[in-house]
Amino acid sequence: xxxxxxxxxxxxxxxxxAASVMIFAGTELLPGDLATAILQNSATPExxxxxxxxxxxxxxxxxxxxEWLGRAVQGNLGVSLSNQRDVVEELAPRxxxxxxxxxxxxxxxxxxxxxxGLLAAINQGSFFDRAVNLVTLLTISIPDYLVGxxxxxxxxxxxxxFPVLANVTPETPMGDRLWLTFxxxxxxVLVIVAHMMRMTRASVLSIMSSPYIEMAFLKGLSKTRVVIxxxxxxxxxxxxxxxxxxxxxxxxxVVVVESVFVYPGLGQLMVDAVSKHDLPLxxxxxxxxxxxxxxxxxxxxxxxxxSNPRLRNPR
Amino acid sequence: MRIFGHRPSWPAMIGLLIIAVFLIAAIAAPLLAPFPEADxxxxxxxxxxxxxxxxxxxxGRDIFSRLLYGARMSIGLSLVITILSFTIGxxxxxxxxxxxxxxxxxxxxxxxxxxSMPTLIFAFVVLxxxxxxxxxxxxxxxxxxxxxxxxxARALAMNIGALEYVEVAKxxxxxxxxxxTREILPNAMxxxxxxxxxxxxxxxxxxxxxxxxxxxxxxxxxxxGSMVRDYRDVIALDLPAPLYPAGAIALLTIGVNFVVDWxxxxxxxxxxxxx
Lengths: 315, 275
Description:
Largest sheet of chain B: none
Structural class of chain A: mainly alpha
Oligomer: heterodimer
Strand content of chain A: under 5%
Radius of gyration of chain B: 22 Å
Order of helices and strands of chain A: HHHHHHHHHHHHH
Strand content of chain B: under 5%
């Protein structure tokens, strides 16, 4: 089991490294030239050549990759092309905002999803089960921004309980911050709860057909007790891995939700950087998003390995 | 009505109906639209009435007409992306399954690598360099999407390739092309069609999300995603304008998902087992 875990850790690190190669290759080696992209209409051959020299683009890609990675590991992600500011300085407050939103959404979504999933599994086939099933199926098919705008329409405009825009600043006190980010959090929660809840229900139900569950029923235990004490602990491994995978989805879903509420997070920053062809910033944001995605996937796998008793004794 | 010898379930019927309506809207947009797409026909944000079914937009154009024309862009673009990704995915997937050895290993590891990164972030990186012209958008999304088709196509070809009738064809001395087109492809059809639906909704939602973020279809062309973006500000004025294109996106996705669910449920017996 330890061998497998270590192996998976190494695989995760290798994937991270490969992702850095792909992000670098994507921004540096693709046919579109960075210098031409920056200059756009004023791109005469002389201008382009000069800018290429200025940016160091005339040196071999491998050398530039090694330099870039070396600096990135030391926490130096370069300088933004559009406003000449240090990328790390630009990123840090945005990353904090995004992490705050993601953490809040996780805190609400995970207990809610597991609770609803268990309730649906206990009352399988009941009206509650079918209603939750239908609602989650709909929220899975609905794009994030429609969920967001519907919440805005009813809770911010009609009822005026929450603000339309979540424009927090570093000085915003905690209470206001929670109030401002309530609707973006709810949007993210609705989007990820559906999937997590369905998987929780499915994992519990698949375990409900095993012999030891039948035994528990034959002992005369109540259904609630069987589900919570006998089925749920055994369904925990798949549930934890689904939670981690959904959090990985959250990393990406946050980009759209931030845009809906004009929330100053990392996703908005990356979208702006992409439209401005600000490559150092795109690379840095890409590394952070890809890194979070890869690490969460790795955690999901490792939890799966650790919680599988069949892998505990080496053969 | 029967499809593949099965009667569609109720949700699947509704799904097919939604798809048919949207396809007709897309194809016949110039005939059905009461006004041309770019014409200013009244005051900005005029309310909906009998002439302007969904009201007018930020420039005074008819929202309903723009929605019909937007269907062409949204559905057309996603179909082109899906067809391209299928062509790439099936060719590479079947090649990997048949060639085996280092070709298979190389392609599979490459695919694992691409899948290990979030697709949206990957697309961002590419689009930041190449810009957001339509051909770039199509090829980028098709390539990213083909990775998932590759996995399915490879698995199908592996499973079906091990069945007796393929062995018989090999022994009979049929060539590779015959085996792929006459033995494997017809038996892989059902799961592939269901996958086509899934991949279509993926491409459709992806293009819409990119356009919504301002990185997809660029003005003056408009798809539903960019319409949501154009109309987003008036949500604060309690106007429903951005909800129409966003609702259209959701409705088509739900319709396709209903049909895909049903198709997967008929073929739940496993790939390649259909007589």
